[in-house]
Structure formats: C-alpha cells, structure tokens
What we know:
With 183 residues, this protein is mainly α. Helices cover 68% and strands 0% of the residues. The chain has six helices and no strands. It has helices at residues 3-22, 36-76, 81-98, 130-150, 157-177, 179-182. Helix 2 runs antiparallel to helix 3 (81-98).
Amino acid sequence: MTTTGRRALLVAGASAAAAALTGCTSDDAGPPRPRAAERAAAREAERVARAEAALRRRAVTASRTLLERYDATLAAHPALHARVAPLRASVAAHVRALGEDPRPTATPDGASAAPVTTAPPTGPAVPADPNVALPELAGAAHTASAAHTAELLAAPPEYARLLASVAASGAAHAYLLTEGARA
Length: 183
C-alpha cells in the first residue's frame, strides 16, 4: 500500500468515526438529532415552567379570593368603608403584583368594559352583623397569608420575596381587622 493510500484510508476512517460520534452519517442526513441529555434538560425545563405557572395561579387565586371577600364585606356593610377600603386596595395591588389585573378590561376606545351579567353577582356570604363580618374577613386574610407562606419554598427567588411580602401584609390585615380595632 502506498503512502497516499494509507493517508486516504486514515482520513476516511477518521471521518467515519467523527460522523458516528456526532450522530450524522452524511451531510444530507439533515440536522443532528438532540441527544438524550438535551431532551432530558428540555423536559425538566418544561416541568419547572409548568410548576411555576401553577404556583403563580394558586397565589393569584388566593389573593383574588380574598379580594372578593373584601368586596362582599364592603357591599354588605358600607359603614365599614373607612376601615376596610384601604386594606381592600392593598389586596387589589397584591393581585396585580402577583400576576393578574383585577380591574375591568378596557375596550379599544379606552372605555371600561363591565362584564355583562343577567343574574345578581354572587360572592361569599357575609354575616349581617359587622361585628361578626370583620373577624370572618380577618380569617380570610389569615387563610390567604398562610397560602402564600406555604408556597415560599417552591417559588423562584424573586417571586418568593413577593409572596413573603404579600403574606406579611395579609397577617397585618388580619391583625388590623381584629386586634387592631381594640388598640
């Protein structure tokens, strides 16, 4: 065998080995297929994204439920407006910060679009006695606060800080609605 023949054989062997290692047999075979590790990483990233989206939905739902409780309490007891409305505004800000805007949507002409309903709005039942309604509202604030606290370890760092702040605010609301009135 000549030197040129040996070189050609070595080059051909090296090319075949390189093609086998990269998963391609020829240039016409198309793009290389993702390796198992890349597919596993993509699946894990998708799982993490789904888990984070579910966590955010739960956080928004907890705050939205509390906001509905505030709205129902204010509707049932307008005399509590001065005491409850600032706390309600805080909860509305929490809902927005956690990822949902509780305000009515705007129409293309900039006007506020109110939902079209034929039945009276339904919301949580509120006791007729304001002295009972406030402790129930405080209990709802405590429940939302506990729900946010429970999600802290699963949340990404920035969202965990937001959840901690919202949870602390909920605990303060519970205090202000019950013990704070006695001080």
